């Protein structure tokens, strides 16, 4: 694996460390239906103590506080990708500016941000590298050499790596290790999860952040962020799938052993259901979204034939004899699209081996996960009854942002606490000699002065 291609991500990680030392950072969930910004106040000393003690990010929640929050309607984003740069920049600036006003005087202007990215047709692949341990005891340099020995997975032109995370290490015949440093052995192997996305949509997001005069401190895949917030530690360790039913996309992430194993995105979501209602019942999109939220569901019951809903057609909103439809008729429009989404999910999950996970937990999150009867549909199609996953609570999080539709935004805050190791967190292995000794002296001076 060529370390040189990861210089932009290495720079983002440095900016994240700098923001943590200054104690202020913003996270922005760029979604297809809404953009959410959280301004965080970080306790650098408490975070450093938690890291020294080897505690998980969820144990360090006391080191972060949400001091500003704002959600605005997303414009210029479709299926997780930017289609109108000016509109997206305007929405991001508005969300950040109002969140900063709420954060004052605890936090001044925020320059570093972490963003989510749910487009680009993500693809997960695995790769394994093996090296001889140089001194008989595994060091950070040995880990870097093992990661460098991992061959780059085959990718089509126009794609680039977005996440490259060590999942498991093996020292001689001892496998399942998360941190082998200090262990004795002769051979070290590393298994790595590599997620690639289409380069152009990712570059558009990065350009949008630069146009907003912000420094990018990290880009996190949307399904990964949702899983960090909606899954508890036991589920991440024993094996679980987090399904995020968003507006423009439906994504899922698979966790095992506390690590992300794979993630994928289906380019269908709640907005497709809204468009089905608007087209099928000949009404305005705003009205279709409202009745979907207020009266929608996955299954119709016998009493739904008697529940009548105002559903005026286009042009008759102000007339006294507006059309009414039964709730069962509305559900009849919603249900086929839901079935299509979950049948595609079933095929994707079977392809990645969900049935072989030890825990096989299913967690639904996202705005559309709150439709009544959805758990029964998931149980029928996927064979497991899910739970509705709300984001883990962090200090200062407004009550209005504790629902399943804000899991990705909270997941970005959790990621900021203690991001999982990526290949760019390790220095490229250099030959032993004077050049290596000089680089180590330079690194020590850079980190301590």
Could you walk me through the main structural features you see in this protein, from its secondary elements to its overall organization?
Helix content is 37%, strand content 26%. By secondary structure, the protein is α+β, with helices and mostly antiparallel strands. It has three domains: 1-121 and 198-231 and 391-449, 2-Layer Sandwich (Nucleotidyltransferase, domain 5); 123-197, Dna Ligase, domain 1, CATH 3.30.1490.110; 233-388, ATPase, nucleotide binding domain (Nucleotidyltransferase, domain 5, 2-Layer Sandwich), CATH 3.30.420. The strands form five sheets. Strands 3-2-1-6-11 form a five-stranded mixed sheet, with helices on both faces. It has a five-stranded mixed sheet with strand order 14-13-12-17-18, with helices on both faces. Strands 7-10-8-9 form a four-stranded antiparallel sheet. Helix 6 packs across helix 12. The model has no long low-confidence stretch (mean pLDDT 89).
Average pLDDT confidence is 89
CATH class value of the largest domain: Alpha Beta
For the secondary structure, the number of strands is: 18
CATH superfamily of the largest domain: ATPase, nucleotide binding domain
Q: Main beta sheet: strand number and arrangement?
A: 5 strands, mixed
What would CATH call the architecture of the largest domain?
2-Layer Sandwich
Q: What is the first-to-last residue Cα distance? A: 31 Å
- Please state the structural category: alpha+beta
Any idea what the radius of gyration is? Answer: 23 Å
Look up the CATH topology of the largest domain. Answer: Nucleotidyltransferase, domain 5
Shape: globular
Strand content: 25-35%
| Helix proportion | 25-40%
Low-confidence stretches: none
Number of helices: 13
């Amino acid at each position: 694996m060529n370390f040189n291609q990861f210089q932009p991500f290495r720079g983002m990680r440095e900016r994240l460390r700098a923001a943590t030392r200054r104690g202020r950072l913003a996270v922005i969930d760029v979604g297809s239906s809404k953009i959410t910004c959280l301004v965080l106040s970080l306790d650098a000393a408490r975070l450093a103590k938690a890291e020294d003690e080897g505690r998980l990010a969820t144990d360090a929640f006391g080191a972060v506080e949400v001091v500003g929050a704002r959600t605005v309607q997303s414009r210029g984003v479709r299926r997780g990708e930017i289609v109108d740069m000016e509109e997206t920049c305007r929405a991001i600036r508005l969300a950040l500016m109002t969140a900063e006003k709420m954060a004052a005087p605890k936090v001044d202007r925020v320059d570093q941000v972490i963003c989510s990215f749910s487009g680009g047709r993500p693809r997960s692949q695995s790769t394994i590298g093996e090296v001889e341990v140089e001194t008989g005891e595994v060091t950070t340099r040995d880990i870097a050499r093992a990661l460098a020995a991992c061959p780059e997975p085959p990718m089509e032109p126009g794609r680039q790596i977005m996440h490259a995370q060590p999942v498991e290490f093996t020292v001689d015949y001892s496998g399942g290790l998360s941190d082998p440093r200090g262990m004795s052995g002769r051979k070290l192997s590393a298994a790595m999860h590599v997620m690639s996305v289409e380069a152009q949509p990712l570059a558009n997001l990065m350009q949008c952040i630069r146009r907003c005069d912000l420094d990018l401190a990290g880009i996190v895949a949307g399904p990964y962020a949702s899983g960090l917030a909606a899954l508890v530690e036991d589920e991440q360790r024993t094996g679980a799938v987090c399904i995020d039913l968003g507006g423009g996309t439906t994504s899922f992430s698979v966790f095992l052993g506390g690590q992300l194993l794979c993630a994928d995105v289906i380019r269908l979501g709640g907005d497709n259901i809204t468009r089905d209602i608007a087209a099928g019942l000949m009404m305005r999109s705003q009205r279709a979204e409202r009745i979907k939220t207020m009266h929608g569901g996955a299954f119709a019951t016998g009493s739904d034939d008697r529940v009548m809903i105002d559903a005026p057609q286009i042009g008759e909103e102000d007339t006294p004899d507006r059309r009414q439809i039964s709730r069962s008729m509305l559900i009849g429009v919603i249900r086929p699209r839901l079935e299509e989404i979950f049948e595609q999910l079933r095929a994707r999950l079977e392809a990645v081996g969900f049935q072989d996970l030890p825990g096989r937990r299913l967690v639904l999150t996202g705005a559309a996960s709150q439709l009544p009867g959805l758990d029964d549909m998931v149980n029928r199609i996927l064979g497991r009854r899910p739970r509705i996953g709300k984001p883990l609570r962090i200090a200062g999080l407004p009550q209005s942002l504790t629902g399943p539709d804000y899991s990705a935004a909270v997941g970005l805050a959790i990621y900021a606490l203690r991001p999982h190791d990526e290949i760019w967190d390790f220095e490229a292995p250099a030959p032993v000699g004077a050049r290596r000794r000089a680089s180590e002296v330079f690194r020590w001076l850079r980190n301590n002065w």
